[in-house]
Design a protein that fits this description.
The chain is mainly alpha-helical. The chain is built from seven helices and two strands; from the N terminus they run ββααααααα.
């Protein structure tokens, strides 16, 4: 879907990159049945991000989060495969929309797809025991928390609290020095 592919070089993240349009994207939903449930969380953290960057209606986001989280807990089964297909199709459409509006990442629109990723790279670099999806979800939570504090948006606090409750994740125990964050960001091409 995304036209940009990036690779790390030593301790520098995403510094080698290429824009290349795929000829096709194929999703075989049945392959999800072969994944352990822990791997389904990887997709779910991206789906959460896509809902946050594309929907303004908090009730709609929460309704979808409840529905999708139920699927995540249930796992991929023959009887719910069409619901998984619908969930992933919506996510692919959202991602495609951002890419098509700004295919070469020149206008800042594409950056919405990076929500959570820049600081997730920091978390992964400084605390390598975090998996990427966990780091993305943690940064999404921290971003929501900051938005609530800065903009006094209580609607966002509902989503923030829902994510903490359902993922049993809390970021407040993380201690990262400002110097380490700055040094790590300087080695990330996104920054």
């Amino acid at each position: 879907i995304i036209w940009k592919v990036a690779a790390n070089l030593g301790s520098y993240k995403n510094v080698i990159w290429l824009f290349r349009s795929p000829k096709a994207t194929y999703c075989n939903i049945d392959c999800l049945k072969t994944l352990p449930s822990s791997e389904l969380y990887v997709a779910f953290s991206e789906i959460v991000k896509h809902l946050l960057i594309s929907h303004e209606n908090i009730e709609e986001i929460l309704e979808k989060l409840h529905k999708y989280f139920f699927l995540l807990e249930e796992g991929v089964k023959d009887q719910n495969i069409n619901l998984w297909k619908d969930m992933l199709e919506e996510s692919v459409i959202i991602k495609s929309w951002f890419v098509l509006l700004d295919p070469y990442d020149m206008n800042g629109i594409h950056k919405g797809l990076s929500l959570g990723h820049t600081f997730a790279n920091v978390i992964e670099t400084l605390m390598p025991w975090f998996r990427h999806w966990e780091a993305v979800l943690l940064w999404l939570l921290m971003s929501l928390h900051l938005s609530i504090q800065i903009y006094w948006n209580q609607d966002l606090s509902i989503i923030h609290d829902w994510l903490i409750q359902n993922f049993n994740t809390n970021y407040k125990h993380l201690i990262i020095s400002r110097k380490n964050i700055q040094e790590t960001l300087m080695r990330d091409k996104i920054s």
